[in-house]
Here is the input.
Amino acid sequence: MRLCSAAVVTFCIAVVPVWGQDSPLPDLFSDVIDVRVVNVEVVVTDRAGNRIRGLQPDDFELRVDRRQTPIDYFTEIDEGRALEASDAGVGSVPALTPDEPVGTSYLVFIDDLFAIKQRRDRVLKRLEEDLIRLGPADRVAVVAHDGRELTLITHWTGDRADIETALLEARNRKPYGLLYRHGMGSEQGDKTRRSVMAAAGAIRSFANAPGRKVMLLLIEGWATVSDVWNFRSAYAAASAGVTLDRLYGPLVDAANLVGYSLYPIDLPGFQGSPGPPIAGFGGGGPVFAGSIGGYAMWRGVPERRFHNVLQFLAEETGGLPMINSFSKKALAETAADTRSYYWLGFVPPRNEDDRLHDIAVRLPGHRGLRVRTREHYLDMSKATEVGMLVEGALLLGGSPGAESLEVSFGEPRKAGFRRLEVPMRVTVPLDDVELLPVDGQWANDLDFRIRLMNKWGDQAAPPVAKVQIRIPNEPMPGDLYVFETDLTIRKRNHRFVAAVYDPLTGDLLSTRGTVGPR
Here is the structure.
């Protein structure tokens, strides 16, 4: 066995590491663009809310960034079964098998950080009772967040007994909502942000779920506009929509990125009528973010603000908010809502630049019909995709890719106030990566990343480092490539997941463990 070593460098959370000067490799090292279909689930109703069936591909107009875009794939799903495509010429992607069940993947996210046990358990019990509404190809996964960790209660399963066991385990968890009901002040936005990021991480961790993808969000107490914004002027109130987007954008983007529709559930349920307008203020019904009328004008406005949050999450991703009495039948309503829809797909130009693109679906020849769908998609880069895999492994356990990477740490050294500098040695088995002959050397440019999380759930993601392998001879079986660096961390223990991505093969090598003071 031979060892090939790289230079020692500094790897600091706040500083981009230097692995050598940039020297682009020939075209044979460039990533191969993975052409993927963007799926768009479309619900069509009349003005009374009745589903409209039997539409043809030519009835739809798809616009991406305001430009008309060809529909490459079209299937109507009716009562959970795929219908044969109306036009054999539509769809460069193979259609679902006609008349076969189309499964829905239900990812249940329970936010125990703000939940109150009685309310949470009531909804969980109703979910369990409504499991009979699931179809034969449906599956459920359950995760819970307590403000520190995201816990996987059950992975995907269609077995009703397994799901019931998972929901019972969820009811036995300790919620912390009573601790945060009063005196939240400006901190509520920060705590909500932690829950939002956990939900976004759960979605990214379950990105490859089959079939229609739905997240049921069991939440309450998430920050509203007034919790994160000081309403001292009309301008501040008019900026409310921007604040909602800023706080909840990461969750919406994650859902649209991998094709999840959000169905947020109002854990408190119906809380009574709002009462009369406060003297001296205007009135009006529930107002969505961006208007002054419904904020701070009603005694019951905190509930309405929270409902606006639920509505925002649902509308941005093509789902429905389960508000008031609907929280008691959330699974039944969600199952019914996802049984019949049109599944459109298109192959976008792939720049892999993580840019957000607007989606609009219209029915130009059908005035009076209403369309509900997600509002944008993200042109995901390979770096983002790999980062999602690493984050998912950190949150929910396991390792992305082959567990053949080795990481060891030396004696920590002080590196300023409450910080440590830890020597790190990374060993890459060359049997598991591809090297190609370039200019008399055997070479590849690997991406190395490490992600850390402390016991409170706070994460750190140092910048991705480029590991430029250049060796004079063709590697022999068993050869290793070793590089050393310094990792700067806060003075506490962290769990970590480290991974090396090979752009030539698309493979990941990874490992996991703990690092911190000894």
Residues 7-35, 86-95, 228-242, 273-300 have pLDDT under 50 and may be disordered. The first strand starts at residue 3 and ends at 5.
